[in-house]
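Renewal narrative, Specific Aim 1. Our central claim is that a sequence can be written position by position from structural information alone. The example that follows is taken directly from our test logs and has not been curated for this report. It begins with the structure tokens describing the chain, in the order in which they were read.
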């Protein structure tokens, strides 16, 4: 019984942690950035062009 509880608890924690990652559609340009989609702007996630990688 304890093993089942541990497995279920582990799965709940794993799903909770993995669902908190934020992703975006589309690819990055040569500068490591992109323009926000209309949906992202409506949700207030971004306002325009932004970077995901630091420039070297």
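The sequence written for that structure reads:
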């Amino acid at each position: 019984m304890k093993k089942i509880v541990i497995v279920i608890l582990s799965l709940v924690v794993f799903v909770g942690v993995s669902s908190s990652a934020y992703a975006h559609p589309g690819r990055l340009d040569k500068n490591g950035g992109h323009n926000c989609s209309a949906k992202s702007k409506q949700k207030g996630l971004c306002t325009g062009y932004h970077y995901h990688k630091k420039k070297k």
